[in-house]
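If you are new to this repository, start here. Below is one unmodified record pulled from the training split, so you can see the exact layout before writing a loader.
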Amino acid sequence: MLSKKAKIKRMIKKGKKAIELLEKKRNRSLAALLEAMLNEVEPYEADVEFFKTYTAMIAVERENLTKLIAELLPKTQNDSDLSVKVK
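And here is the target side for that same chain:
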C-alpha cells in the first residue's frame, strides 16, 4: 500500500500528464481559430467551444495540482511558491 505522500505524488504526475494532453487538444482548436482569423473568415463555432472547454478544463486541473502540491509542502512556505511549482 502506498503512503499518503507517494499517492499524492502519483496524483500530481497524473494531473500534469492530463494538462499536457488537454493543452495539445486546445492547441488544435487554437490553430483552427488562428487560421480563420488569418483568412479573415468566421471561425467554426465548434472550434470556439472546444477552445473554451479545454481552457476551462486546464484551469480546473491546475487548481487541483496546486491543492495537491500544497499538501506536500511544509506549512511554512507561502502560496506564492505554489504557482512556480505547478507550471
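Two things worth knowing about this chain: Helices lie at 4-38, 45-72, 80-86. The two ends are 29 Å apart (CA to CA).
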